[in-house]
Amino acid sequence: MVKAGRASIKRGKPSYFMSILGVTLVLLLMGIIGLITINGRKIITSLKESLEVQVFLKQNIKDTARERLQNYIATQPYVKEIKYTDKETAKKEWIKTGGEDFTEFIDNSLLPPSIDFKLKADFLDSARLVAIKEDISRFPIVDEVKYPTAVVQKMSSNLRMVSIYLLIAAILISAVVIILIDNTIRLAMFSNRFLIKTMQMVGATRWYIAKPLDMRAVINGAISGIIATAIVYVLVISLESFFEGFRALRDTQSLLLLGLILIVLGICITVFSTHRSVLKYLRMKLDELY
After folding, report:
1. DSSP 114
2. pTM here?
């Protein structure tokens, strides 16, 4: 029986190699989708947090009043970053964006000082922005609070749809990945069906037959997951070397979690499919194996 068990594993090596290769490719597909999902979320967050709210101040206000307002805004939970833009800075920014230097011909009130801040992604919502605007506008030194209303509404709607599409795509591809891995393992086990049946005929128990195959499945699944994770990481490094912007999107913690998921998923599905195939062939009659 021991020789039969060893023989089954030894003779099954070519199919195990193809099994590892097949599972690796399928897990790599899932890893790429996971990478797209992770970066997609970071891009969405980055887009949301790039939106700027401008608090224009009245003319000839005291610095202490302005600092009080700026400190108040800075302590609010919706603020990601904040800065003060005086008249001279506003003039330079206007010229930098392509505007003409007309300040010597018109009143300086057209370029008033302002407190500009960017919102955290969770607060990019029309209703919340209205409440924020009303809260800041109650300060006597505030002349006007501005933000791109149309952009906010369109961005919120579009990004919500993008998030839904990404979620649906991730679920569908995860289901396809599980099915593909299951079919790959079943094909690999198909070549071992006569060896499994032979061990049963010489008196081996189900556990004795399944144990070495299940243990091998754990190893194969882990190898597939590790290889897929390594390829995904190399892909990330390559993208960062070609595109500078990708480096800012890297989330090491999420990448480690993705790698762990690929390894665990590879092991779980491989073991499940292997054990199920073993039990299937054990229940079949010898004539049904042909």
Report:
1. E
2. 0.63
